[in-house]
Amino acid sequence: MSKKKKAAKKKVKKAVKAKGKPRSKAKIKSKARPKVKAKAKKAAPVPIMGNRPTQSSKPPKGPKLTKSPFTKSELDLFKKILNELRKKISGDIQQIEGETLNTSSKDSTGDLSGYSFHMADVATDSFDREVNIGLASSEQNLLNDVDDALKKIEDGSYGICEKYGVAIPKKRLLVAPYVRYCLQAQEEEEKAPRRT
Q1: Rounded (5°) CA angle 44-46-47
Q2: CA torsion sign, 113 to 115 to 118 to 122?
Q3: What residues contact residue 117 under an 8 Å CB cut-off, 6+ apart?
Q4: Do residues 139 and 88 touch, judged by C-beta distance below 8 A?
Q5: Does the CA dihedral 60-85-91-148 come out positive or negative?
Q6: Highest mean pLDDT among 48-57, 65-74, 111-120
Q7: Residue 158's pLDDT is what?
Q8: Which residue from 92, 104, 121, 158 puts its CA 20 to 30 A from 74's CA?
Q9: CA-CA distance, 145 to 82, in Å (whole number)?
């Protein structure tokens, strides 16, 4: 017998004496190496009916607020900006209504004859009308957001994120004074699937 085989037999005999059971050479070799535990992987969220579940994230840093973080002079500035924006949006809505909703298809084409229109002209007019109605709807939603922001200034909760309760940065409010969420919450809202 070779020296290697004799050494392996001695290891087996020692293992038998220690445990009472003979072990194979492979088990003896693996005994010398420390075992590394596999890390448990987190299960990925499963989409249900095509909707991906929202992944929870950490709320932004900052204290939870119940009162507006802005001074009276800053609130007056935001109120002035919102009122000017409200006037502009109201004017835009009235203009769209005047051009689209209050005119008949005959008036909008400029055709004064009693003859029928070409089908392509009717389709184009119909499409333009639908686009203008969509624009009016978007403007109305924006006007509602502006009105909500003005109400928040009055009740003292302006500039607070509706989702996390932290202060919305002043720079964000100067660009869009009607926003309801901080940037992180806005991104989460936009990523969340819409159910109809």
Answers
A1: 135
A2: positive
A3: 105, 109, 111, 125
A4: no
A5: positive
A6: 65-74
A7: 94
A8: 92
A9: 10
